Amino acid sequence: MDLTGKFGLIVGVANKRSISWAIAQAAAQAGARLALTYPNARLEENVRELAATLDNAVVLPCDVTSDEQIAALTPSLDQAFGGLDFVVHGAAFAPAAELSNRFVQTSREGFHTALDVSAYSLVALANACVPLLEKRGGGSIVTLSHIGAERVFPNYNVMGVAKAALEASVRYLAADLGPQNIRVNAVSAGPIKTLASAGIPGLSVMMQAQRERAPLRRGMELGEIADAALFLLSHASRAVTGEVMMVDAGYHVVGL
Length: 256
Ligand code: 0WE
Prior knowledge:
Blueprint lengths: L6 E5 L7 H11 L3 E6 L2 H11 L6 E4 L5 H15 L4 E4 L18 H28 L3 E7 L11 H21 L4 E8 L13 H11 L8 H12 L10 E4 L9
Parallel strand pairs: 1-2, 1-4, 2-3, 4-5, 5-6, 6-7
The structure holds ligand 0WE.
The site of ligand 0WE has 17 residues, from α6.
């Protein structure tokens, strides 16, 4: 899968275990030039250190809850690259309390935050990037989802609702942007230990169920998620849009 000469934006890198970072590394390896964003001062240093290991990567601020910061991306990317071929969206957040309380007790604010950061941000980012993608004759947008969008997993709670909204947004964006040759897809990854999942009570139970029940009888590695994303970013998937691709060693097909 070749991305030589392509320009990409990667949103959602927190540290070296981030799925977004695995995708960034694979895309850079495939020849792409990248812009990475950081959401706040706390994560800026992490992102700068990781970006420095890539060839000629650009680092930009982007808190996805800020319309101003999303709007400011467009001129910065235009100046750096003069257009854009792909966008990787790997931003997600729900307040910790919402992932340990009962779902029925989800607060209005927690619901709003989870949906804003984890689902609306894809729509806003896509909208900001459309002019840049159009300058290059179209492009590919890939976001990250989880099977908790479709089925209930203990404690995933409002994140499952946010991922359901994200997956529906993938389909509506695909329909909207298809005529401009912009594709929109999601990779739904099985459980992986990242900053976002480490420390979650029950993660080890989910990872064990994955190894025992998935047809391939194993979990996934970051590089395997990244390779699936690379397919969706590349010319190889040019007829695929609006799709949620399960990259879970087959876990989702098993009933019992
Ligand atoms: O989508 C995710 C991560 C979502 C996430 C995780 C956190 C933990 C720390 C969003 N917001 C926060 N907020 C925090 O304060 N995953 C698919 C990983 C994940 O998260 C879970 C999981 C799995 C798997 C949360 C509960 C149960 C299982």
